[in-house]
Amino acid sequence: MLRLSPSLLAVALCACTSTLSNDVFVEDGRFAAALPSEASAGAPTAFDALTGDAELVAYAAAGSAEVDGLTLAPRAIGEVLRDAVPDERSAVHRAWDAVAVVLEGPDGAVQGWVRAEILLTEGDELAWTAWLAPEEEGPWSPVGSGQHHDGEDLPAEGGFTWQRGVVSAITGDTAGGSLEVAYALDDPRHIELLVRPDALSPPEREYRVQGDNGLVFPALFDLGATPTAGVAVAFHTPEGGRADGFLAPDATPFSACWDASGNGTFLGPSEAVEGYGTEADCALDTLTEP
User: What DSSP string runs through 8-50?
Assistant: First the structure.
């Protein structure tokens, strides 16, 4: 049987009653969970694996890639901070000094530096702020802030705002404006993204994610005689998938279906699209919006 020496026993007893040991170090994970992650900001993955020829599968995959690109930097920063030991700890506070982070730019990976602070508020909400710099010494610019609530009886939920131009200044990208994200980590997870433009960015656009299988996304749809802007909701199951959408400027409805591999089985019924198949071939009925 293992026997502790008196000195080790004293240390063990001290650790059992130490607020710093039990309430601070053990809860590092709770604080870090407030930062952006794959669960709270990741794109759906169901459309990426499909190899079929359905037009809407390709559009949904492109929309998923857009969500992935929009949230890549905040997720990268959340990941490196979760892997790094906080430089400051208290029962209601975590802070990281300069931590190296790899950011993806148009010409490849670029190293930046991130600082962050997380505070536990009186309302039991975790509020975080992050700063980004091109060098370890700075200059530092605020890049994101958010809130996260992890109630015992309800799914975790929260949101954050991200300044895309701050990242672009380091990576050499041209993206500007801001990204607003709201999420609820129930089963399936729900994420809403709003891209607010600046003077050089495309118009404001919204995306919604449901689990790994559903996506609401805008696109320029080429389904008929003329490419037309619109919005669609797409969902995929092991049996097949479906998308329902509307085309501008008159909100002309359209629907599309595909089989388990992503091969198109139906496109219609509007005259605005070059349709095929019958709706009876669809694996899913009309979708409700994720």
Answer: HHHHHHHHHH-HIIIIIITTHHHHHTTS--HHHHPPP-TTTT-
Could you report the per-residue pLDDT of 120-138, keeping only the tens digit for each?
998 889 999 999 999 999 9
Enter the pTM of the model: 0.88
Alpha helices in the chain (DSSP H): 6-17, 19, 28-32, 38-41, 55-83, 164-171
- 3-state class (DSSP) for residue 82: helix
How far, in Å, CA of 146 to CA of 159, rounded?
Answer: 6
Contacts 24+ apart (CB under 8 A), 245-252: 245/56, 245/221, 247/221, 247/223, 247/272, 247/273
For residue range 212-267, list pLDDT tens digits in order: 999 999 999 999 878 999 999 999 999 999 999 999 999 999 999 999 999 999 99
